[in-house]
Amino acid sequence: MSATSDPRPLTGEPLSLDLLNTRWSREGVTQDLLTDTEGLAVWLASNGLAGEYASDTEVLRHLLQARDALKAVVDGSPEEGAPLVDAVLAHGRIRPTLTAGGPGERAEFGDPAWGPAWLAARNYLELLATAPDRIRGCAHESCVLHFFDTSRNGTRRWCSMAACGNRAKASRHYARSKET
């Protein structure tokens, strides 16, 4: 796998959900992009972070901790997951700044290796503040992907209509034709 090819079926989601989507299912087998630093390099590049952060084992370890924390809070309960997300957030902070363009913010980390993990956890807080009801898991029973529903009426059900949505429609059609 080269650093330019991202094998995941769903990319381009907000950073926190994109991190969760580094695990996916292909033909019933769980795939994981973050099994090594090569996969980390792919993820960093896909999210525009490759030039800022190293693809080393320390960054990978912190990112896996953040992914587990986000999974606990998104797929589990906020009571159980919140302390795990908070533990990641404890490694950074937002520093207000004044730039030539006006007020700004800059993330600061005691250890830069926490950068990508912290940014993903912080992004989850931003999604919660924006529209928590639009953070969704795919409705297909064998899909583990997550997305942020940006549809106008907020009724998106599938990670991808072309993949999971189409499989569900085909399955319903097959069941109806089998009955007749």
Summarize the structure.
By secondary structure, this protein is an alpha+beta fold. It is built from six helices and six strands. A hairpin with a 2-residue loop joins strand 1 and strand 2.
Structure write-up:
This protein is an alpha+beta fold and 180 residues long. The strands form 3 sheets. Strands 1-2 form a two-stranded antiparallel ribbon. A two-stranded antiparallel ribbon has the order 3-4. The chain has a two-stranded antiparallel ribbon with strand order 5-6. A hairpin with a 2-residue loop joins strand 3 and strand 4. The longest helix is centred in the middle third of the chain and has 19 residues. The mean pLDDT is 91.
Radius of gyration: 18 Å
Strand content: 15-25%
User: In order across it, which strands form the biggest sheet?
Assistant: 1-2
Low-pLDDT segments, ≥5 res:
none
Overall shape: globular
Order of helices and strands: HEEHHHEEHEEH
The main sheet comes to: 2 strands, antiparallel
Counting DSSP H or I runs of 4 or more residues, the number of helices is 6
Layout of helices and strands:
Blueprint: H1 15-20, E1 23-26, E2 29-32, H2 37-46, H3 57-75, H4 78-89, E3 92-99, E4 102-109, H5 115-130, E5 135-137, E6 146-148, H6 161-179
Antiparallel strand pairs: 1-2, 3-4, 5-6
Which key features would you list for this structure?
180 residues; alpha+beta; two-stranded antiparallel sheet; 6 strands; 46% helix; 17% strand
